[in-house]
Amino acid sequence: MAASMARRLWPLLARRGLRPQGNGVSSQNPRRSFAAEKPNRNLLYEHAREGYSALPQLDMEPLCACPEEVARALDLRKGELRPADLPAIIAVWQELRQLREQIRSLEADKEAVTEAVRALLVSMGPEQDPQYQGLRARGREIRKKLASLYPRETQLEERFYVRALRLPNQTHPDAPIGDESQARVLHVVGEKPAFSFQPRGHLEIGEKLDIIRQKRLSHVSGHRSYYLRGAGALLQHGLVNFTLNKLVRRGFTPMTVPDLLRGAVFEGCGMTPNATPSQIYNIDPSRFEDLNLAGTAEVGLAGYFMDHTVAVRDLPGRMVCSSTCYRAETDTGKEPRGLYRVHHFTKVEMFGVTGPGLEQSSQLLEDFLSLQVEILTELGLHFRCGEELGAPGGGGCGAGELQFAHTVNATACAVPRLLIALLESNQQKDGSHLVPPALQPYLGTDRITAPTHVPLQYIGPNQPRKPRDPGQAASS
Question: Where along the chain is ATP bound (predicted)?
Fold first, then answer.
């Protein structure tokens, strides 16, 4: 996520405070108009083209200077964009850059002609009429050339952005290359729990304690959904509040984010809401055009900074947000039941904005990692710390007072996965569950026990023994 974010969402730094960006795009500008949609869409580019944002500022110089390095990174990522796509992107960029230089030169000439005509009209005599007519002819000639160049610029611009906005940011130099087997374990925290009995899985524990329900929900909310009840719900609220309280005390700004976001924000974070298949739920476009359910809070947090500047004195900015996350995940219905990879869940996310230096963003990432370790340690969990680095989202530094920022994010608390770990680590032989001391104030107890009676009884179809419906006569 962080590896793709800031080049496209561009929170900007202003040494003297907030400044609007000067190259905003208006939908009325004929140079930004299109007659028809193209099959290879890019929602982020369309967002700018329609005047909602400025056009993305992509730093192409490093790519043009070292295409082999970028091609190697693309090959290692194994993504949709392949090394063979780079030459076409570079060629279109170079053609677009040359065309824009030609347009800027003609626009400067046009402005000079306009100023000359304006000055001549102030004190023009009959003897100056040929000069005046010559300037007007020159102006018409320039406008005619520009009228032919603007559509070509629009075509090249679309071809360039549709491809170039799929380029990822650079990968962090410390990121391991390969699959999960290549990950390095940095250190292990805590002791693996030992049991004198056969341990149960989290779902069996939760069902016996009547705090998790996942059976018979296909007609309610589909597969991979679940209910948390009683102490299960309190465990979720306790985990969220425990995490939020800790991070707010550490100086994080608490945030809430929209659950519905436009596709441009997802694409700015390296996600493709219109891909097939996609992890993103799309709202019916016939009713609400271009709205999608957020699968993680950092997308909404990144959108909060979109098209805005941040004063250097306010950096690093650190935010924390608890949100409901929606993900398509698997759709076959054949996966094992449980809270792993569900369609909806609650998560607390840390999000940060730093200056453009890799040293600053790497330090913030280390701070986030330390907080993750602290949270899991206080919950009494046994875990390994490995390497999973993308890159702080960031672009090259531009001229003037504005620079591209870096963005960093890390999950502080993914509720379902922590519930799995807590239930399976703290289970007791008698079927009860010990509540970690850090969560006891939120549950009001140190132990969760099974209920003395069954609060719900299933009376749906396919039951051999079913109670009579209201008003139904007893069978003889």
Answer: 327-329, 342-345
Q: Where are the alpha helices (DSSP H) in 269-411?
A: 297-305, 358-378
What pTM was estimated for this model as a whole? 0.80
Q: Is 37 annotated as a binding residue?
A: no
Other C-beta atoms within 10 Å of 374: how many? 13
Average pLDDT over residues 467-476: 68
Residue 387 is labelled as binding a ligand: no
Q: Where are the alpha helices (DSSP H) in 348-436?
A: 358-378, 415-425
Is 296 annotated as belonging to a binding site? yes
Q: How far is Cα 233 from Cα 210, in angstroms, rounded to an integer?
A: 11
The reply, when asked if residue 23 is annotated as ligand binding, is no
Instruction: Give the model's pLDDT for residue 127.
Output: 64
Say whether 329 counts as a known binding-site residue.
yes
Q: How confident is the model at residue 475 (pLDDT cuts 50, 70, 90)?
A: low
How many C-beta neighbours within 10 Å does residue 55 have?
17
Q: Do the annotations mark residue 343 as ligand-binding? A: yes
Q: Please give the Cα distance from 430 to 195 (Å, whole number).
A: 12
Q: Is 299 annotated as a binding residue?
A: no
E strands within 317-372? 317-326, 344-354
pLDDT tens, residue by residue, 143-172: 999 999 999 999 999 999 988 988 887 777
Decide if 57 contacts 11 (C-beta within 8 A): no
